[in-house]
Structures are given as C-alpha cells and as structure tokens.
Amino acid sequence: MLRYALRRLLWVLPSVLAVSLVSFYVLTLVPPEPGISVEERRERFYDLPRFVNVSPIDLRARIDEAVARLVAAEARGEKDREAAEDLRRLGGAALPVLLPKLDELGPAEREAVVAELAPLARRMGIASEGRLRDSATSVVFWNRLWESRGVDFEEGTARSAVQRYARYGTEARARQLRELDTFVLPYLFEALEVPDSFVEVERARRLVDVLVHVTEGAEEDLGPGASVARAKAVVQGWQRWWLVHETDYQRLTGARRVAAFVTQTQYGKWVYESVALGLAEDDSGRPLWDELARRARVTGSLLTVGLLGAYLISLLLGSVAALRRGTWIDRGVGVFVLLPYAASPAVLAVLAARWGASTSAPWTWAVLLLSLALMADPTRHHRDALLPVLASEHVRAAIARGMAPWRVVVVHGIRNAAGLLAARLVTELPLAVTAVFVLERALGLPGLGEATIVAVARRDVSWLMAMAVWGAVLAVAALVVSDVAQATLDPRLRQSLLVGQRRTT
Amino acid sequence: MSELRDEAAARGRWYGRRLRRSRRARLGALLLALMGLAAIFLEVLAAPAPIVAFGDGTPSLLPAISRPSDYRHLTPAEVAARHAGDTTVWPLWTYGPETVTEAGPAAPMSAAHPLGTDQQGRDVWVRALYGTRLAFGLAFVTLSVAVALGIAIGALAGYFGGLWDEVLSRPIELVQAVPTIVVVAVVRAASADTSLWIFAVAVASVKWAEVARLVRAEVVRLSEEDFVVAARALGAGDVRLLLHHILPHAVRPALVAVPFGLASVVLLEVAAAFIGLGVPGSWGSMLAEGLDPAAPAVVPLAGGLALGWMIVGSYLLAEAVSEAASARVATTATEF
Description:
The complex is a heterodimer. By secondary structure, chain A is an all-alpha fold.
C-alpha cells in the first residue's frame, strides 16, 4: 500500500507541470499594456518566447550586433550612440570575444569600435584619459592589454578572485575584480547569498559594492551598517536583476545552450524565479510564498474542519434516515440537508453577514456554514449505502436476536460509509474550495480566496500561477488520500489497486 | 445479434418508464420546465420594448431581441414616447434588467414592481427573471461542450484501452479533482471579456472529466457484452462498433450526470459572480449586493429564491434519475 501511495504521489510532478504549463499559457495570452518601457518589457520577460526559445540571445550575439552597427555607422560617417552604449554596458565580459574579433575588421572599422571602449577602460581603472585619446593608440593599448592580461579573463581565475575577495575583502582584491569588470558577474552571483546574519551582511555588502561599480549602479547599493532585512531586500533585487540580464554577460555554449532552449523563456524564467530563487512577489510587493503560506493556513483550516464537520453531520443524519427509512424522520432529514444545499453557500453567507457574523467569530461561522452547505451529498450517499446493509440477512438476524440498531450502524455502517465518503472526497473538494472562497469574501476572512479575487482584478500572474499549482497539488493529494483510504477500508479494492487498475474503472 | 441489441435497448426503455413514474422526477421536471419556459419566453414576460408594435405602416416584432441596443438605455417614459402613436402589445412588465425605473431606488413592493426596486432603481423581479435565462443559457452551453468532450474522450479511453487509456485516464482523474473556481479565476484574469461564453468554456474545461469517467466505465463494460462481441465476430470495424453499437448505450448512463451538472454549473456561476468572477446580471451578483447593509434585503432574497427553485428542481430530477439508474443495475439480473 505504501508503494502504491508513493507511486501515486510521483504523479504530483507531471500533474503540476501540466497544470502550470496550461495556466501559464492562458495567463500570458494577455498582451502587455501599451506604452511599457523597453526595460520593463525585459524585466517582465515579454521579449522572450513563452515555452521554447530556439535562438536564445547571448553575449556573443549582442557583441556581434553592436559591432555590426558600429561598423555600419562608420561606413555612413556617423556614430551609433546606442550600439556604443551597449558595448560599454557589456563591459569586461565582452573583451574575450571582442578583442580577438578586432583582427577580422579593417583598420578604420577597428578604430571605430575601439574608440567606444574608452569609457570601459576608465571604469576598469586601467587607463588614463590621455592614453586613449587617439584611436590608433587605443588599438595598440587594447592589443597589448589582451596579450598581457588575457589570461586573467578565465573562468578559474575569476572565480577564485571573487571567492578570495568575498572572504577577505581587501582593497587590492576589489581592484582586481574591478579590472575584470563584468566578466566576474557570474561568479559574483555564485558567491552572493541572501544574508541571514550581520557577518553575512558584510560579505554581501562587499560583493554588492563591486556589482554597483561594474554595472554602474543598475540596482541599489548596500551602504555600511545596513540591517539584515534591508540587505536581504537589496540582494534579492540584485538576484532578480541577474535573472533578467544574465545572458547579456555570458556565452551560451554546449549544454548551457541546449538548456537555454527552455530556461531562456517566459515560463523558464518564472519557474526559476519562483521555485529556485523564491523571489516571486505578489503585485503588492509581498513575498509570494510567505503570503501564500499565511493565507493557506486560513483556507486550509476552513476546508479541513468544514469537510470534517460535514462528514460527521452526514454520518449522523444518514444513519438516522436509514434506520427510519420511509418515515417522516427520513423525509425530514432529506429536506433538512437539501435546504442549505439549494440555498448555496452564497445565500448562507449573505444571511450570516447580515446577522453580523463577519464581526463576531467569522471563522466559526464559516466552518458551520461550510459544513451545512456540504452535508447534502454525503448524507444521501451514506443513507443509500446503509440501506442494503440493514436489509441483509445477517443484520436482520442480529437485530432479531436483540442487537440494538445503532450498534449495527456503528459496527457495519461506519466502515462502509467511511470508504464511500473517502471516494466522494475527490468530487467534494472542488465544491468545498468554491464554498470557502465565497465564505471568505462574505465574512472578510483573509484566506486564499480573498487574495485571488484581488489578483484577478490586478492580473497578478505570480499569484494566479501559485494558485493553479496549489490547486493541482490539492487535487493529486485528494486522489491519493481517497484511494489509500478506500483501499485500507476495502480489501477487494486494495487488491485491484495493487495490481495497477485505476480508480476510473 | 439484433436481438441482443434490442435487449440493451429494452433496458433503456424500462429505465425511461421507471423515471416517468417517479413523483420526484415529475416534480423536478415541472420546476425546471416552468423556469425553462420563463427563460425562453422572457421578452413576453418582461422587456423594455413592446412585444409587437405597428407604427408608420411597418410592424415590429419583439424589438427587444432584434434591436436591443435601441432600448437598453431608455427610460420607460422614453420608450412610451417612442411608441406613442403605435398600436402595441406590451409585455407584463415593461422593464429590462438594466432599466432604471420611474419608481426610484429601493422602492417597496407594488403592482408595477412585485418585489420592489434595488438601490439603482431597477426592478428586482425582472432582474431575477433575466437571471433565469442566464443560468439556463450558461448551463446549456457548458454542459453541451462538457458532454460532447467527455463522451469523445471517455469513449476513446474505454474502447481502445492500453496506451490510450493510460494517457487519457490520468487527466480525467486530475481534472475532476481540480478546484473549478481556480480555473475560472485564471481564465477571468486572462480575458477582460465577462461574457457567458468565456465563463462557459472555463467551466466546461473541467466538467468534461465527470462525463468522460462515466462514459469510459460504461464503454469498458459494454465492450464485453455479447452483442458487441457478436458484431465484432461478424466483421464490424472499430468505428462502426463504437458509433453504432456501443455509444448509443454508453451515453445514456452518462446523461445521468446532466441534472447534477445543471445544479453544479449554476451553483458555481453564482459563487463566482458572488466573488466578482461570474457573468454580470446573474443571481450571484444579486446575492453579492446583499453584503451591502444599505441594499434592500429583497435583492439577495429574490436571487436566493430563484437559485433555490432551480437547485431543488434539478436535485429532485437528479435523485430520481440516479435512483432509476441504480435500480436498473440492481434488477438487471432478474429482469433480463
């Protein structure tokens, strides 16, 4: 049975994947609002394909484009400020690709490109203004630099330089990183962790200092004496920045290029951001998972206690109706359970809210109303399942020999009913979630429903994706609990489950 | 072989007879039929335009349907002025659900306004009547799509078995347990369109699973029946076997889900409208107005009673249908 439950639980992954893919597709059908800036488009990944990126743009592609534009502008006798700005932004990371590439260009074109590297040299702190004033001198400067320092622009050198700096933080090591410029960005982000203590804040501050320098302040600085909370927020801001801009500073080769088909997509970025980094925020800027966990406690407790209440009431009423079959009690129970069902949770919620339930003990009211609204279906099923048990010969014989009818219900009926109610859980749960959302709205309970209503109005993709995934996990959990409970209670079903037959038969 | 198939058809006729004899089925059907008639002939009962108008030599039949935009935003006085010289036959109540009546906001009950008016001066009774059409329309569209999809997927999974079954049964299981309200929320966020169609598609994308489950189980059972085995032995192909021999019988038990589906779709829409995700003008939005203490209590009351009427009707019918179906199974061994 344990093996069966584990096998079923493995279905959580493909189920969640399928649900999240479909939900993501639906939610990203909405076009971006007009007038949105280029940077905002990038931050929200609108420029990336949705699920598959067959030609991801990396550092090399950006350098090729910038150089081509500078060369074209040179041929026209003009300057392309945007391409020059791109080259400066790409910085040290571009040098291992760009400097060898200069040999392929003609003298005039080479000088035009090199002229745009002067601001970079200043940022790296490796040349004075005077040395780069003349184009021909600049070409010689960069050629010599690459001959003497090219070996520093290697993965191992850069990584160990970053690690040493993170640990010791001396000015000499900081200067070394600044000289490598954006080439060290991947290794800085490897070393940058969300701080939990003051010691870690100091380490993060050192790394953020270099980040601010080489990106010319793309994100916030972390000054001395910052609190842990502030440091956390700043580091998370930088991590998100890197998520958006990482391919500007890295080449995609080999396995990374293959992985980029999936990772450099809107969906890939969303998964990485929310699952791996845990960075996702709802539209109000609150951490998504914290908010989800806080609200799931309210909704989860309502669902659990409400369903439990409904099942307990239905066991009692169903048993009474079956024992008094055909009498006014049976019919009375039928009407009693039908009334709240027909009234629906919305009507019950309005009545309760008008009586002031939202101000006095709203949670208790919600549980009570939920139990009442959900009891019709299990009561009917329990009653119908108990009738053949009561009519069976061994039970009639036991009653004839003086056994109390209520003992029959307890001994034979409850086991029967529990299996039946477990089977109904799968269909009952979606109804219960709907009812909980209604009750939360009417009684002002801060659960998932309340936040989802706000998220729909704001088109908050992060929250709605989280809800879709939560819904899928809940669905699979209900299926597993239902199957295991049924199999535990019914040996015949246990056999069929273990040999691999499905519940849909 | 035809005798074998006739036997299966006879079971169906017996099931129909049993259903017709059930008092609960008759009462449920009556409740739903009354509502259904009101939904179909709504413009005869209440509309902002005349049923028929003869003016300038050209007759105009049900202009509230043919030219709704001409009347939607007119006050009753303006509509009366428009047809001043015409020969007209008016509906019982001359308001639409959006018409702001001359009685003003929160007017008490009167002959002209059987349930009074809401905070905006709209007739509450007429709003509840129009909610009926919305509820039936939504249930019809949703269940049509869900039943068609469910039959197709359930039949494929049940008949072909093996990999087909494996691939199709998992989504059936999962979709059945997914909270529909979350699906509705996702679709609502993706589309600014609050029309019935989008909502119906969102709900149908979940509801098909229940039908598919029932059809699959029935197709698996029927595939082993003598008349199917005989037809296969005589050389019938897969398509003929499925469409001609199996599906006609497999569909009937699946239709048991329809009355239950009617109630669940309407209840879901009311819940969605209550939290602002439904179709405007439904009973759910009337109920949501009840949360405002200043709103007349009759608005949520009318919405709640109309909803209760429909749910009781479909519940009684569903109970009877389900009982007849289970009785058929119980007596199959003795009767046939």
